[in-house]
Write a structure and sequence with these properties.
By secondary structure, this protein is of the alpha/beta class. The protein is 39% helix and 25% strand. It is built from 22 helices and 20 strands. The strands form four sheets. The protein has a six-stranded mixed β-sheet, with helices on both faces. A six-stranded mixed β-sheet has the order 16-17-18-13-19-20, sandwiched between helices. A four-stranded antiparallel β-sheet has the order 2-1-4-5, covered by helices on one side. The protein is globular.
Length: 532
Amino acid sequence: MAGRESVLAMHDLRVTFNPPTGPVDAIRGLDLAIHAGEVLGIVGESGSGKSVTFRSVLGLTPPSATTSGTITVGGKSGTPTEMAPEARAISAMVYQNPGAALNPVFTIGQQLTLVAQDENESNLADLLDQVGLPEPAKALDSYPHEFSGGMQQRAVIAMALAQRPKLLVADEPTTALDVTTETQILDLLVKLGNERQIAIAFISHDLGVIGKIADRVAVMRNGEVLETGATQQILTNPEHPYTQMLIASSPGARETATFTAADEPGLLEIDNLTVEYRNRDRRAGRKVRVIEGLGLTVAKGETVALVGESGSGKSTLANAVVGLVPHVEGSIRFDGQDLATMTRAEKKAFRSKVQVVFQNPLLSLSPRRTIAWQLHEPLRLYTDHTKAERDERIAELMGRLDLDTELLDRRPHELSGGQAQRVVLARALAVDPTLIVFDEPTSALDVSVQVEVLELLNELKVERELTYLFITHDLAVARHLADRIAVMQHGKIVELRETQDLFDDPQHPYTRTLLASSASLEAPAASGASRD
């Protein structure tokens, strides 16, 4: 870009992995540059090479990988191996999974101090406040497990910014954030990038986010850059068919509602639910109330979406519904039975009828077991099927979910994100559940896979007469899938409406704030134009 210094440039970058099955060309002759104060958006489907590109530049690829080409950092050029120390010295990274980036045995303050030794506690608390963490002084003394996924990600972003990098590589950093926090983080990154002249490489599958933050966009597929240019030009007038497909794959609004909750009896009935956790920072006996007096009924065959900020209690509610919260006040009834009074036999039947699909499929699957073993496990536990019957059931599910049976002999790390999420869904469906609780199941998927999974969920719901409780921070996804939407804030449902009614005429101020934040992320052309 004219008038801006190039912080990092790649010329003819090539990366080849060398597994036992033969070499795989991950990056093929890539040319790319990023400049001071610029946000470069990198988009493409899973496996396109987005993350590998910057990992190779920073020397983070495995020893078996071979790299070639020329890397230029601060006016000095060399091979990727030669320049990796130079690139690491000016860079910080924010990964997609904040839980893997935080050390569970150190407080957030201790981890911030390790990367920003010249900052005092007041400055660190101010940094946590900038990224939107509530009560930043207390957050410094908190451990990662005490944070929600969104709060963890904000802490990781603060750690990256504390290093005062010249290059910030943000690899899907907002997938765990609700729309209001996402907007806040994006605005913060733009502000700090301009003030500190940080070059930001922003890797994302969310074109709305890219439109909000990026000056330029590079579209990748199969290790190559297919198209690059100004954000507005790429998102409003894409030239390459692949870019056109990505833009067309964004979840859209449903045309009409086809379900009325009053038509069916309540399958899941939650009445006056209160959940409290003991707070280690307070006097003995004091607790933090996460959910307070919540009531919700989900009818048989209905999809109810729960939306709200990180820390609003959505995941806690999901855990309570599936019996993972040991002590609750109020009642949760499934098909007329109270969870608190179920016998052991009734609880076993309940666990087969209510399944859960979490956000990160790789954390839901054992890394040591094959996919076949993990799909057989629920059938062994909850059915009396023979081995042949289990094999037949699994083959049928694999086919229905567009999964090749060759994957059965693989382990989770050998799958793509979309494949892993479909395997987790297959495992949930194996025992013929009545209710499935989804906790952010599509936030880590690229847009084309996300649409495929959402359409598949709609089809399976009709075919198998399923009921869904669907937690998401993505209002576009909720609109695409849900019959009704429940908006949560501070442990309470502040608004519960049929989907189209909520979008047409939101009643609560918080709902209007969420919709306004979501709208700003659904207008990539306008947002991209405003970056200059």
